[in-house]
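Retro notes (design track)

What went well: tokenization of the new backbones is finally stable.
What didn't: we kept losing track of which sequence belonged to which structure.
Fix going forward: every design gets posted as structure first, then sequence, in one message. First example under the new rule, 394 residues:
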């Protein structure tokens, strides 16, 4: 299948944020078309005061990014900041009049490498109210936006296979780059889709977060994988895949490289996982053949998710890629988690029936005790029933 030709063009925006064009267009690859490199806007410098505090009761880090409260919210179509910049309209985040895939530093980031800090680190309040019980840290990492396509009327499901491959290559490129930032522990590409999820921009896009700590779900997976290996001597993901294949009731699709299934203990109203069949740490660890094969799984999956509910054209969802953390950053008690985990997609929706959302009320929100209104087997049956034939998506 071979490598996927790409032209990668980094530029600097007016406020010193980085933007990178990832182009697969033959005209761009041949140099006959170039991307605009100058941002004509007059923007103030990008500086935040993001901070993290560790909850003494749970040990989990909570991030505070008050500047995000004023971020762009559902602008009119002619003020879409993720569209290409076109004549007669306001300049957007993307100076070019067209693009294939583009990534840029979030203008309103949760985590940032541009945090206002005192000249002397000793002057920073490293504990809340001076109490060591509640440590405080700058939320230093990087958040990026990835735009999959310039047309705001389309969605990830509408991308041709070659463009999905470009997105996969972009995730790999950014995973490698963000993993090099000092203090970053994990890189996590994800997409929120739908107003019901809380999306503030309708343009088809995702985000790529780098975390300066190990997020709770990632930690739980790694701890379970470590304990499973210690008890059985086997890889947890290998055993999960083997068990799902033996049962067969929740398998949606399976290829030489990937398995798509509804987890046996799925908790969301609609939930699907995509897992490589071999131990893969992150996108950079995928072979060229695996990178080429992944779009052939993702496109029909996203089509099926949008067909799940009758009368719903676009199912609201969260599609999150869990990657193995930067191994060298696991220190202290976390050193025992090295070598565990596997790249996987968790795609889920909070919609429980057409146009009705599941609200995380007392049991889920207060205690983290999940109660589902369906069963994983019923979800799998429905996804298989609406899974498109190859002729519908090739």
């Amino acid at each position: 299948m071979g490598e996927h030709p790409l032209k990668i063009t980094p530029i600097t925006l007016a406020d010193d944020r980085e933007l990178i064009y990832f182009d697969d267009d033959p005209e761009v690859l041949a140099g006959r078309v170039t991307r605009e490199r100058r941002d004509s806007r007059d923007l103030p410098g990008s500086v935040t005061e993001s901070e993290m505090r560790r909850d003494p009761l749970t040990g989990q880090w909570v991030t505070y990014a008050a500047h995000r409260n004023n971020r762009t919210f559902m602008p009119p179509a002619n003020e879409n900041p993720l569209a290409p910049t076109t004549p007669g309209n306001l300049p957007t985040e993307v100076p070019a009049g067209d693009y294939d895939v583009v990534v840029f530093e979030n203008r309103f980031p949760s985590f940032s490498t541009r945090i206002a800090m005192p000249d002397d680190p000793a002057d920073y309040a490293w504990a809340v109210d001076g109490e060591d019980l509640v440590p405080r840290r700058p939320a230093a990492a990087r958040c990026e936006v990835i735009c999959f396509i310039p047309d705001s009327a389309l969605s990830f499901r509408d991308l041709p296979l070659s463009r999905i491959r470009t997105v996969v290559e972009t995730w790999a490129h950014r995973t490698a780059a963000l993993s090099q930032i000092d203090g970053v522990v994990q890189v996590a590409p994800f997409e929120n889709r739908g107003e019901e999820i809380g999306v503030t921009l309708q343009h088809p896009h995702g985000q790529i977060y780098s975390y300066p700590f190990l997020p709770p779900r990632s930690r739980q997976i790694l701890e379970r994988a470590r304990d499973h290996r210690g008890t059985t001597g086997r890889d947890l993901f290998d055993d999960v895949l083997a068990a799902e294949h033996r049962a067969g009731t929740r398998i949606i699709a399976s290829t030489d490289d990937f398995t798509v299934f509804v987890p046996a203990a799925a908790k969301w109203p609609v939930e699907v996982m995509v897992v490589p069949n071999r131990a893969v740490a992150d996108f950079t660890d995928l072979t060229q053949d695996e990178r080429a094969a992944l779009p052939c799984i993702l496109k029909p999956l996203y089509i099926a998710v949008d067909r799940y509910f009758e009368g719903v054209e676009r199912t609201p969802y969260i599609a999150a890629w869990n990657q193995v953390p930067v191994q060298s950053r696991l220190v202290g008690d976390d050193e025992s988690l090295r070598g565990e985990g596997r790249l996987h997609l968790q795609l889920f929706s909070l919609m429980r029936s057409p146009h009705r959302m599941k609200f995380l009320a007392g049991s889920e929100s207060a205690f983290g005790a999940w109660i589902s209104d369906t069963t994983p087997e019923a979800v799998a049956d429905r996804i298989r029933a609406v899974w498109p034939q190859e002729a519908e998506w090739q």
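Added context from the reviewer: The chain has two domains: 7-211, 216-393.
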